[in-house]
Amino acid sequence: MQSAAVAHRHFLDGGATAAFPFSHLKSTPTASPFSVRMSLREDAPSLAVVGVTGAVGQEFLSVLSDRSFPYRSIKMLASKRSAGKKYTFEDNEYVVEELTADSFKDVDIALFSAGGSISKEFGPIAAKCGSVVVDNSSAFRMDDGVPLVIPEVNPDAMSHIKLGSGKGAIIANPNCSTIICLMAATPLHRRAKVLRMVVSTYQAASGAGAAAMEELELQTREVLEGKRPTCKIFKQQYAFNLFSHNAPVLPNGYNEEEMKLVKETRKIWNDKDIKVTATCIRVPVMRAHAESVNLQFATPLDENEAREILKKAPGVVVVDDRASNHFPTPLEVSNQDDVAVGRIRRDESQDGNYGLDIFVCGDQIRKGAALNAVQIAELLL
């Protein structure tokens, strides 16, 4: 029998996907050992990955390779502490460079995931150098002049930004919980207009970074061995527990994570009147978020039509098997590109077909962060 540590490591390495097959979903592609990579090309843009040593930074590299994103060069940037580390990417070895104001010379696209303070300092510098910045932090999301983009939802928001124009720009990646929610809610919103949305999230450790994932694994082992759990990233036991999201609580009683979902939805849907409320909970899951979403519509939409709409939606897969009680789970969507939707049913608390309940799961590191950012970069090509 596997120990908890081995089981968790197996999960982090993607072994769980094989143990729990989810054939509906688009898995991350694996290159043939005999294939020739065509990504490295002289006529392609130059890239920089800021925060390359972090969980999302590493996933940037994975997604770039999986999708054969074209590039003529790639810089790997991180803090002074990480400078000098070596990574092999597509059979070439790269040395991590210290991030400085001079890092963005001749860089066409800069993928940022190094935290809000780093983005605020270096994002404008990169843009001034002519780079198009795709930023994964919250630093610029609510700035009026910065597009907040989910490519399947609102690609037109960044249509004015052109690669090779000599003009730099910043494009913001939405928060992970917003991306996963709106991938499922937007196709229904287009059909019946959402008036009110109530979201409860069940968020994985990965949202707090690689160190949080490591602490969850460590705590699980410690609790099973009867030891006091190590609580450094989170100030309370995480293993075998759940708690209100660790983001700071605001004067209105909502925490910052919940208000991100409220504000970002309004900006992405370009609708200041949409009513959104959220409760965000941290659960002891490694890398995929789950969300319960209740929708109230302006026009009727029955569950059968909703199911058909979602089946046709890009980046969405419907997993809604009532007979076998099989619906989306965080484990099954981990390391997958698609967002899974199930539990599609009429809201019995509302008259007629003016309300639906759905349950959504998506990989927080992938579609919730790195994949969405790379898809934004693809729109620039």
Round the Cα radius of gyration to an integer and report it. Answer: 21 Å
Number of alpha- plus pi-helical segments: 10
Specify the helix fraction band.
25-40%
Largest sheet: 7 strands, mixed
Mean pLDDT score:
91
One letter per element, helices H and strands E, the order comes to: HHEHEEEEEHEEHEHEHEEHEHEEH
Strand content: 15-25%
| Side-by-side strand order of the widest sheet | 10-11-9-12-15-14-13
- Tell me the number of strands: 15
**What structural class results from the helix and strand content?**
alpha/beta
Low-confidence stretches: 1-23, 30-36
Shape: globular
Distance between the termini: 49 Å
